[in-house]
Specification:
With 242 residues, the protein is an alpha/beta fold. The chain is built from six helices and 14 strands. The chain has two domains: 71 residues, no CATH class; 161 residues, Metalloproteases ("zincins"), catalytic domain (Zincin-like), CATH 3.30.2010.10. Bound molecules: zinc ion (ZN). Zinc ion (ZN) binds next to loops.
Length: 242
């Protein structure tokens, strides 16, 4: 990783940066620039290759207050812990943790609007994360297959990811991939992202015909697309207890 921050004999990893500021050493960049990335809750510091260390340091020092203000303005995390309510597939659900000392394996069940976690220990974050990913995958798999069937296509598999750069993708072989964080989005938004990727099975571009198909495959693609554009970064707020 460190070698990526070196150019000739300039080692940019020696720069004094505030926390959550990451250097992006770029040979095509013309000038120094700072950009807030809502999704990763960090700031990307673009440094053209060959910039002197003193110049790179003084730029960050000059903008120090802006950086801090920007990071502080980010919405706070929502920790998925006991009694926390959060949107899940378009429904507000509440976490209920029940301690049972004798329990060997943690049990998670979703009943109506209660997500009950039966556990012997207070450490259930990872287990909850796995449950959400699996449940999301199962639901989105069904949605994808149903939509694909309407255009005579077959899905070759659905994968999940936690990528900060895209909510979904579709490969040439017909494999779809979705960010499991979509589980926290309203239904029309999930529906739109699924329709979008399924439409790519027919059109590997964003042409007019692609958007026409995307519209046919979704309930309200305009509303879903708008929600994702305006609120997508909100999905990154959900974190699991340690
Ligand atoms: Zn696309």
């Amino acid at each position: 990783m460190l070698s990526l921050l070196k150019y000739k004999n300039i080692n940019y990893s020696t720069l004094q940066l505030p926390e959550r500021v990451h250097i992006n050493l770029n040979k095509n960049a013309k000038r120094l620039a700072l950009r807030l990335d809502n999704k990763s809750k960090s700031i990307r510091y673009t440094v053209p290759k060959g910039t002197s260390l003193s110049k790179a340091q003084s730029f960050i020092d000059k903008n120090y207050e802006w950086v801090i203000r920007c990071l502080e303005s980010l919405p706070s995390d929502i920790i998925l812990t006991d009694n926390c309510s959060f949107p899940y597939f378009g429904q507000e659900i509440t976490i209920k943790v029940k301690y049972e000392e004798s329990l060997k394996v943690k049990e998670i069940t979703l009943n109506d609007t209660n997500l009950t976690i039966k556990t012997a220990s207070e450490i259930y974050g990872n287990r909850l994360r796995r449950w959400i990913i699996n449940d999301f995958k199962r639901k989105v798999n069904i949605m994808s297959k149903e939509k694909a069937a309407t255009i005579g296509k077959e899905i070759k598999g659905v994968k999940t990811s936690d990528t900060k750069t895209r909510w979904g993708s579709c490969s040439h072989e017909g494999k779809l991939c979705f960010s499991w964080r979509l589980a926290f989005a309203p239904l029309e938004a999930i529906d739109y992202v699924v329709a979008h990727e399924v439409a790519h099975l027919n059109h590997m571009d964003h042409s007019k015909s692609f958007w026409a198909l995307c519209q046919d495959l979704s309930h309200d693609y305009k509303a879903g697309k708008k929600w994702m554009k305006e609120n997508g970064s909100e999905l990154m707020r959900y974190v699991f207890p340690e």
